[in-house]
Amino acid sequence: MNPARLAFRVLRLDGRARTSTILTAVGVAIATGLVLLLVSLPFATKARAERSGWQEIDYDAKGSAMLIEHGSDYTGDKEITRIDVASTVDNIALPPGVPRFPRPGEVLVSPALFERMHALPASQLADRFPGKIAGTLDDRALKYPDQMVALVGHAPDEMPADAYQVPGFQTADNAGVDPLLGLLSGVGVVVLIVPSLVLVASSSRLTAARRERRLAALRLAGATPGQVTGIVAAETGIAAAAGALLGLAVSPLLQRLATFVPWDGGTWLPSDFALPAALTVALVLAMPLLVLAAAVLGLRRVVRNPVGAVSAHTPKPLRAWRLLALPVAGGFFTYAVSSDSPSTTMVLFGLLLVVGSAVVVGPWITYAVGRVFTRLWRNPSGLLAGRRLLDDPRGAYRASAGVVLAVFIGSMALVLLPSFSGMAGGGGTFRDSVMEVSASPERAGEITAQANDRLARYGQQSRAFEVGEADLTSVNGSHAYALVLPCAQAPALLRIEVSCASGPAVYSTRNLSGYRVGGVPFAPGVPMKSLRPLDSDATLPAIIDPGALPPGVVPEDAYVAASTAGSDPETVRTALTVGAESVYSRDVHLAVQQNELADLRRVTVIGLVAAAVLAGCSAAIATAGSVLDRRRTFGALMAAGTPVRVLSRALRAEAALPALAATIGAGVAGMLVGLGLFGLSGGEAGVVLTPWLLAPVVLGAGVAVLAASVCTPALNRVRAEPLADE
């Protein structure tokens, strides 16, 4: 008996077997495609880092062939990476995508920055890069296709004194994986592949009862356990192998679609998602092997007791020890996230245990719901649903397994996203309308004069001011800092309210008696006044009029600040730009935070939609398979006069009520896991819990009921077919 030939004969003669095989292949294809895409994400971030590694400074490198300074600039809410360089030798090794080393007075720009420079007036962008554009960088030198990069050439004596001396551009050896997206891809593999495998299991159950009877008959006719296992392996292997190859074939399409999803400022190159050939082969082979292993393990009853399989004896009731799986998995996950140095592998393994515990606990919950049905309900549909849940809780839970996992993912996301949003804000002590650049006290005056000259030339009413920063030390050794500027300028620049004295004074949110500035006490009689921060983002303890500084004390650091009120913000930014020093403003700080949150929301929505679709499909297929598995029972009930609507209500009840009970538990578990994952972020803000946490439970129950609606067409098909077919 050739197992492969027999499997093809079954597929040729049995329409339901063909349907089950096709759906199984589709499920395996989805799982394979998702695995290949999710596993490729860390490789994609590393490919990005390898391309853009030259834009960073290798602080550990020893050499003096080149001077380099790195900074960030912005146009609107788009970041510009600026690298100022000067060569001290004749030849510098160039990274891929950089056509040549810029000479003094030359600038190499990326195509996106080139277009932006020509779309805006020179005072809003191009004047920040003195010199002529000598060439463009291609995609091999960019982190993402639309990245804005400027490589500015200087003579060695034009570089700042604090520029770094390096032997050349940093190589790709130091490139690493984006830790956040690496973690998200691991979470995605755990929480999306399980629903995909549930879809595969639901598809294979469409002909489970008929297959068991066929295999049991073969065993009773003399087939060995090995022969029966070979037949099932051949039947399942055809679908699994075809699905894995189909998933491999569609993975380039999924990767192409992924290139349009922005992350960390931009999109991707198609080549970013390339996986090593050995890993691709391993993943493509692993998916069919998992499906085959599950199918072979499901043969235990037929192999050991073919008579029991034919007579469909009622299985033994489930034991309450199954409930221990969830606290054990939860305890391991809690240990993984609360350790001093959490390991990503341990956290993901703990998450996998929590997700897997649902498979153990879910059938017992289904069994418990069935006991409630049979004890409290007395209408026909309720009793029929209760008996089904008691007789086959594993099969009944299968219909809601995908929905439960989708609810778990949704609850976890609705804890993390509002909590991350609650961490947003801040941005320092300067007002929203103020831009400032950090400078040394020696250069602050020069930068201020240059900025004011540019602002006047551009016709802007804004003016730049020098702001010092001094260290305050108390008698007991505690430290604070103070900004040094005339009090009259402070309300326009800082997030404070203050009433200025008629002469030099010190203004503070605390009592500064006994404090020293720069190690020197304040002169006797210097007035001490109070100031009030406008909000919690203003963390400034004190401001000091320059005339109130002790003789000989100078600020340790300095800023050059200008308010954009009444002026064009981009022009003010251009006026303040000096070399690679970054111009900071609170609106950019908040925009960066919102872009990061948008990345998380986008990835979460994509994951939730995928999980919901997989859950709905698996629930619908499992419900249809449940009807087809019990064709004899339903056929006999309908032949005895039971209305189809009663059977439909029973099927909807047996699908919806266990799903509701399980989804409530999944919602709670997802919330607790979300709390654990949020703790890994190290955020000082508290967790934000919103009423939207109930949405996944409500939607999950709705999806289960909607998926159960396929039972009526399935029952009508049973009624239309003669029972003799069975």
TrEMBL record:
Transmembrane segment boundaries: 21-44, 183-207, 228-253, 273-299, 320-337, 349-374, 395-417, 605-628, 655-680, 692-715
A GO CC term attached to the entry: plasma membrane
Compartments, record wording: Cell membrane
Residue span(s) of domain ABC3 transporter permease C-terminal: 189-298
InterPro entries the UniProt entry points to: ABC3_permease_C (IPR003838), Macrolide_Exporter_MacB (IPR050250)
UniProtKB keywords: Cell membrane, Membrane, Transmembrane, Transmembrane helix
Domain of life the protein comes from: Bacteria
Gene Ontology molecular-function annotations: transmembrane transporter activity
Primary location recorded for the protein, binned into one broad class: membrane
Keyword Amino-acid biosynthesis attributed: no
Membrane-related topology note: Multi-pass membrane protein
Annotated PANTHER family: ABC TRANSPORTER PERMEASE YTRF, MEMBRANE COMPONENT OF TRANSPORTER-RELATED
Family: Belongs to the ABC-4 integral membrane protein family.
Name of this protein: FtsX-like permease family protein
